[in-house]
Amino acid sequence: VAALVPLAAGAALPDGWGAGLLAAVLAVVVIAFARERAIRRSLAADYQELKAYHARTQSQAARNQGELQQEVARREAMEQELRPSREQIRLVLANAPLIISTLDRRGHLTLLEGRGLERLDLDVASCVGQPLRSLVGEDSVLNDAVEQALEGDSKWVSTELQGVPFEFHHRPLMDGEGRIAGVVGVGVDIS
Question: Which residues contact 150 (CB under 8 A, 6 or more apart)?
């Protein structure tokens, strides 16, 4: 480094130093250029990899979008197919003397509807969420039928509710994993 100070001032180099210094400077420059080329190659490779990744993800996104659109179309077609069946079921429920009910695992009503309720003195909206026992009493055969359904058995029972004769069928209501999630019941006014 001390030898470079006179060079900066324009002084001549001692004998033999010029070639050595030039070789050292050239080596540093060649190493710097080589390193820059390596960095550029690495950046170019990274850029190409990123560009390919972007193309793949764009392609995957397009496939996912297409699959999503197909699924939506499939579900809409299924909905269209089910619409007449739903209307038929609504027609039956609106006109047949039936009571449809579902209960959770604790025996609380989660659904209560049907024309069969018209002859009963019940505020249906306030019944949902209540335990069946509070509506039919402790000794009702309906309680036994619900308990058996919660254990996995289907059960037919005949009983009267507020003097109206009904025949009820209760069976387990299964969840998506095949476990008993509650009970579904259908009652028919048999008067």
Answer: 105, 107, 172, 180, 182, 183
Q: Looking at residues 100-114, what average pLDDT do you find?
A: 91
Strand partners, 99: 187
For 3, 40, 58, 139, the CA distances from 48, given in Å and listed in that order, are: 47, 12, 15, 78
Predicted pLDDT of residue 4 = 47
What pTM did the predictor assign? Answer: 0.55
Amino acid at 109: L
Put the strands of the sheet holding 109-113 in their side by side order. Answer: 109-113, 98-104, 180-189, 164-174, 155-161
Q: How far is Cα 138 from Cα 90, in angstroms, rounded to an integer?
A: 32
Averaged pLDDT of the chain: 82
Residue scoring higher pLDDT (154 or 35): 154
Residue owning tokens 């009970």: 183
